[in-house]
Amino acid sequence: MTPVHPVAAYAVRVADHLVWIDCEMTGLDLGKDKLIEVAALVTDADLNVLGEGVDLVIHADDAALDAMPPVVRDMHAKSGLTDEVRASTITMAEAEQAVLAYVQQFVPNPRTAPLCGNSIATDRGFLARDMPALDSFLHYRMIDVSSIKELCRRWYPRVYFGQPAKGLAHRALADILESIRELEYYRRAIFVPLPGPDVEAAKAIAADLLEPGGSV
């Protein structure tokens, strides 16, 4: 067997890194609501967190905060985020630069690492609008832990109902950590243990699905 060069092995490991981002907003309407908190963590393929991560509260004016729907206003007031937003001097551009700098420490090449989180398409919409350089640096693919949750609800209900309870802090960094923990739970509970099926078994499954009546 030809030995793998250390540089090549490192490149493969880096290409498998995952970028976890969570945002808090004044609402979910891209047409009017504001991004007010962003946190990011990079993990390796085994979900080990790399570095310290980033967690930033972005300033928004009183008009934006006063326009929040009642449920969102109560949520952010309870978590303390509203007061932190008012006190923050961090601009959107500064927050984007800080998150991108952290991500690039561990993911040097653009469009190689997928964006990960729960219901991450919502967050990505705000990132695309407010942090386009960060958004374009990430791969277009996303790993949405909520999709696995929905499959478990249908296929593995005992796993679904046994998932770790969430703290419901509604703060960006806490939400990311809970998303990583949730994916690790599903990995242990439902994914085939390593080394997984051998090549012949994988081919047999694929062939079975291609047989008439074998596919849905």
Automatic annotation (TrEMBL):
Q: Which residues form the active site?
A: 140
GO MF annotation list: 3'-5'-RNA exonuclease activity; nucleic acid binding
Q: Where is the Exonuclease domain?
A: 17-192
| Source taxon at top rank | Bacteria
Cell location? Cytoplasm
Its keywords, alphabetically, are: Cytoplasm, Exonuclease, Hydrolase, Nuclease
User: Sorted alphabetically, which Pfam families does this protein's record hold?
Assistant: RNase_T
SUPFAM superfamilies assigned: Ribonuclease H-like
Instruction: Show which residues constitute the signal peptide.
Output: none
**EC assignment:** 3.1.-.-
Q: Does the keyword Transmembrane apply?
A: no
Q: Name one GO cellular component term.
A: cytoplasm
Its biological function?
A: 3'-to-5' exoribonuclease specific for small oligoribonucleotides.
Q: What family does this belong to?
A: Belongs to the oligoribonuclease family.
Q: Per its UniProt record, what NCBIfam families does this chain match?
A: PRK05359.1
Protein name, per record:
Oligoribonuclease
Species: Paractinoplanes brasiliensis
* Taxonomic lineage: Bacteria, Bacillati, Actinomycetota, Actinomycetes, Micromonosporales
